[in-house]
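Progress note, project year one: complex with heme C.
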Amino acid sequence: MRYRGGCSFILLVAALVGLPSPCPAQMDVWSKGGVHPVTLKADADTATCTQCHSDIGKGKYVHTAMTMGCTTCHQVQNEKGVTHVNLVAPVNQLCITCHALADDKVLHGPYKAGDCVVCHSPHASNFPQQTWAAHQDICLGCHARARLKVNNRKKTVTVPWGVTLTFAQMQGWMYLNLNQTLTANHPVEGHPVSGPNTAMGPQAAPITCMSCHKAHASNFAYMLIKTPPAPGQSLCKTCGLCLECHKSMFP
Ligand code: HEC
Ligand code: HEC
Ligand code: HEC
Ligand code: HEC
Ligand code: HEC
Ligand code: HEC
Ligand code: HEC
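Model obtained:
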């Protein structure tokens, strides 16, 4: 994990003497790289990197690209005896060199901008699809007023897992009007956004944001998996959202 500003020196010292990190958990996922504190050979391979970065790539869910080696994404360059480790492409273009953007009609702001690393670790995490937190907590991280830390002076926001974004990256962002426990009140008052799916019975998967929304993109407004039916629209094949759970809502 990389920390901001004045902390890198403290961290280096702490790392060298084996102390735990004294710095606040702020992740700089936007760095393009820079001067590497340790001199490396230009052809240093994954085995060399992991001698020091043994924590990178640890987690229940490991990005498949890790099998291709560190230098798939990081390049080592030496100039006048100074080692630089830079990303092979700007961070907001790196992921889409292998993962083409969806060509759906509606794209989620941070996905469209290539800001993949705000939600996914490039290396590994303990959550499916190597997201930094459980999917529901990822969504609430930006869309729940109680979770997002806003700094109006710096014009930045910080999500609970420590990634900071500028207002420009957050263009168009909105909060949901959820209850205190962030479990209900959307898309209609009193509606659950988590917990058991009592409309479908005990066998059904619990409700999450992902019961109704895609994380990246969809062909329906608000990245819904389907459009909500308007009364009298019963023949619309893509208008089944509410009917997924409320079988007899619009007879
Ligand atoms: C799929 C591309 C990719 C691969 C493969 C990859 N990285 Fe990264 N790595 C990134 C990106 C993107 C960042 C975030 C930008 C930054 O901080 O420079 C990053 C950040 C880092 C950081 C600084 C932040 C942190 O988490 O500590 C280290 C150290 C690092 N990588 C080491 C490695 C090592 C060692 C390997 C191989 C075992 C590796 N990376 C493989 C893309 C990758
Ligand atoms: C001899 C130990 C050592 C080796 C070998 C090593 N690193 Fe590092 N690296 C460090 C230390 C110490 C830091 C600073 C503390 C931190 O950020 O973890 C660092 C920082 C980084 C960073 C974040 C700072 C930056 O430059 O953006 C990246 C990325 C990184 N290393 C990638 C690599 C890659 C890729 C390799 C293999 C090609 C590698 N390192 C090999 C010790 C090492
Ligand atoms: C060098 C090519 C390459 C790059 C660059 C790359 N990936 Fe991947 N990624 C893969 C491959 C290969 C897979 C496995 C096949 C698949 O699911 O598409 C994968 C899978 C994934 C998965 C799916 C994991 C799962 O459990 O389904 C996620 C999420 C992901 N990558 C995110 C990223 C992010 C974020 C970045 C940028 C930091 C990135 N990838 C950059 C090659 C790459
Ligand atoms: C707002 C958070 C967020 C952003 C930004 C984001 N993702 Fe994801 N991504 C997720 C979540 C959550 C899932 C799991 C989706 C699911 O289970 O339906 C996922 C799934 C994936 C998968 C595996 C499933 C699939 O769709 O193939 C890949 C690969 C992936 N993301 C890559 C990316 C790339 C590349 C970017 C940037 C262009 C990106 N993600 C941006 C949250 C995000
Ligand atoms: C990094 C912050 C961030 C995270 C995390 C995030 N969002 Fe968003 N979301 C935004 C921003 C910014 C917008 C406004 C831009 C846009 O319309 O996409 C937005 C818009 C939306 C919209 C409205 C899209 C439209 O067409 O008007 C939906 C729905 C949404 N997000 C759902 C989700 C879901 C579901 C998750 C979890 C997988 C999630 N968001 C996670 C930042 C975030
Ligand atoms: C039961 C289905 C359902 C669930 C669950 C759900 N949504 Fe929605 N969401 C909708 C519908 C329908 C809309 C369309 C606009 C509306 O009616 O508010 C919407 C709209 C949105 C918007 C845009 C709001 C605006 O003011 O423009 C965001 C952001 C959003 N959802 C995020 C989330 C997040 C985050 C979660 C999980 C905490 C979630 N949704 C769970 C159905 C759902
Ligand atoms: C993923 C399943 C699911 C989807 C999709 C879904 N709902 Fe629900 N809904 C529930 C559950 C569970 C409850 C709470 C138990 C119940 O009332 O059956 C509920 C309750 C409601 C209630 C009663 C709220 C209250 O105050 O008790 C209304 C109204 C409602 N849903 C409307 C909708 C509408 C409109 C849509 C489509 C935009 C929709 N639902 C989509 C699962 C769902």
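The mean pLDDT is 89.
Residues 187-188, 190-192, 197-199, 207, 211-212, 228, 241-242, 244-246 surround heme C (ligand 7) (CB under 6 Å).
No further modelling is planned for this target in the current period.
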